């Protein structure tokens, strides 16, 4: 990767990587730190990286950086320990976007990440597998489970509107 390709990737992908990290971490400062660290790692390894794969490298690096941060802080929740009452949303509320954001926050980290890569960033199952180091069928299963959880959480549309 040349310096010009690196600078171009900063211009093209920094916002997308930041949005992805912000949506996953729900913390602006942490998202900024992860994006900065990802670009730093890419700069260090720029001679080894193909300029055409910069986007994939950045998302993959940011994703793994986020995993490292969560592991260090021991914030990773076990999906099996989630209480059943947390699966349903009983309050009536009219802002579906806010309800959906709350539901996404409650997803396990891996499900949230693959769902965000697929539905918000538009990656294919294969690309998500490369980024997360999962095989394509695992990606599909995690996305299915995440969507099923979101459906249960939101419940009937009457509860949201």
UniProtKB/TrEMBL annotation:
Name the keywords, alphabetized.
Answer: DNA-binding, Sigma factor, Transcription, Transcription regulation
Q: Which residues form the RNA polymerase sigma-70 region domain?
A: 10-75
- GO biological process terms, semicolon-separated: DNA-templated transcription initiation
Q: Domain RNA polymerase sigma factor 70 region 4 type, which positions?
A: 99-148
**Molecular function (GO) terms listed?**
DNA binding; sigma factor activity
Q: Which InterPro entries match?
A: RNA_pol_sigma-70-like (IPR039425), RNA_pol_sigma-70_dom (IPR014284), RNA_pol_sigma70_r2 (IPR007627), RNA_pol_sigma70_r4_t2 (IPR013249), RNA_pol_sigma_r2 (IPR013325), RNA_pol_sigma_r3/r4-like (IPR013324), WH-like_DNA-bd_sf (IPR036388)
PANTHER family from the UniProt entry: RNA POLYMERASE ECF-TYPE SIGMA FACTO, RNA POLYMERASE SIGMA FACTOR HI_1459-RELATED
Q: Which family does it belong to?
A: Belongs to the sigma-70 factor family. ECF subfamily.
**Name by which UniProt lists this protein:** RNA polymerase sigma factor YlaC
């Amino acid at each position: 990767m040349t310096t010009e390709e690196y600078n171009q990737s900063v211009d093209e992908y920094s916002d997308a990587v930041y949005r992805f990290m912000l949506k996953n971490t729900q913390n602006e400062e942490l998202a900024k730190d992860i994006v900065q660290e990802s670009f730093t790692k890419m700069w260090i390894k720029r001679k080894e990286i193909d300029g055409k794969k910069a986007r994939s490298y950045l998302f993959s690096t940011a994703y793994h950086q986020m995993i490292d941060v969560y592991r260090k802080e021991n914030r990773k929740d076990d999906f099996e320990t989630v209480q059943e009452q947390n699966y349903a949303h009983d309050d009536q509320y009219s802002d579906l976007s806010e309800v959906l954001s709350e539901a996404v926050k409650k997803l396990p980290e891996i499900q949230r990440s693959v769902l965000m890569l697929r539905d918000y960033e538009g990656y294919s199952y294969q690309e998500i597998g490369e980024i997360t180091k999962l095989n394509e069928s695992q990606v599909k299963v995690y996305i299915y489970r995440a969507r099923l959880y979101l459906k249960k959480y939101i419940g009937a549309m009457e509860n949201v509107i």
